[in-house]
Design brief:
Bound molecules: pyridoxal-5'-phosphate
Strand order of the largest sheet: 7-6-5-4-3-2-1-8
Order of helices and strands: HEHEHEEHEHEHEHEH
Radius of gyration: 17 Å
Shape: globular
CATH class: Alpha Beta
Low-confidence stretches: none
Oligomer: single chain
CATH architecture: Alpha-Beta Barrel
Distance between the termini: 27 Å
Structural class: alpha/beta
Length: 229
């Protein structure tokens, strides 16, 4: 069968090389998981990524993701990387990790779901370290309070932090943003959470993110080409 993304294996190989090189340059010695962002593409994107050796795929909207995920016959680990509405928290059963826990109200709903199913939901706290008003997530001040509050919420397992850098930011701003997320992870760990993960880096900035300690990169267009939407 013809592939929809014929150069995907080469792109995956090149990105893996760049991830390894960036990790050794950065000096954090972390292994980095590649999350292929399949949003706006059909199920074949995930299937062909799987055939190229990628085991993790990311979607940013539940409504778009669910039918696609149902159409992918291989056991991809699905990540939810975009904003989740509180009335959809039960859909977290289809995802291995929520990258975008971005408010206390969402945390309450996620915790309730985790308690109900008797299995804590793995989540990353989204932090807004660049200070952009349009970006979701916790400010550094809010994070300190939320980190302590979440310790008492056994329906959520906080395994790290996530951030999105501003588009077209300078390298200095990118590094500040990513260092801010690294610090947020430290705040979470200091509060007693098993926070080891750092989800940061997209197609245009993933090498810098990995140099700054990323353990999960979310890459779409560098794998599947530019999106129309
Ligand atoms: C779309 C998206 C990505 C991937 O963006 P690319 O620039 O195509 O790599 C990563 N993270 C989130 C949250 C996204 O919505």
């Amino acid at each position: 069968m013809a592939m929809h993304f014929p150069n995907l294996p080469e792109r995956v190989a090149e990105i893996r090389d760049r991830l390894a090189a960036a990790s050794s340059r950065g000096g954090y010695g972390q292994t980095v998981r590649l999350v292929a962002v399949t949003k706006t593409h059909g199920p074949e994107a995930a299937l062909e990524a799987w055939e190229a050796g990628v085991r993790d795929c990311g979607e940013n909207r539940v409504q778009e993701a669910l039918p696609k995920m149902a159409a992918v016959a291989v056991p991809v680990s699905w990540h939810l990387i975009g904003h989740l509405q509180r009335n959809k928290v039960h859909e977290l059963e289809h995802f291995v990790l929520l990258h975008s826990l971005d408010s206390s109200r969402l945390a309450d709903a996620v915790c309730e779901f985790g308690l109900k199913r008797q299995l804590a939901v793995d989540a990353l706290i989204q932090v807004n370290t660049s200070g952009e008003a349009t970006k979701g997530g916790f400010s550094p001040e809010e994070l300190r309070i939320e980190a302590d509050r979440l310790v008492g919420m056994p329906g959520i397992r906080v395994i790290g932090a996530m951030t999105m850098a501003p588009l077209d930011a300078s390298e200095i701003v990118l590094r500040q943003t990513f260092a801010g997320a690294r610090h947020a992870r430290q705040v979470l760990a200091g509060a007693g959470h098993p926070a080891t993960e750092l989800s940061m880096g997209m197609s245009n900035d993933y090498e810098i993110a990995v140099e700054e300690g990323a353990t999960l990169v979310r890459i779409g267009s560098a794998l599947f080409g530019a999106r129309d939407q």
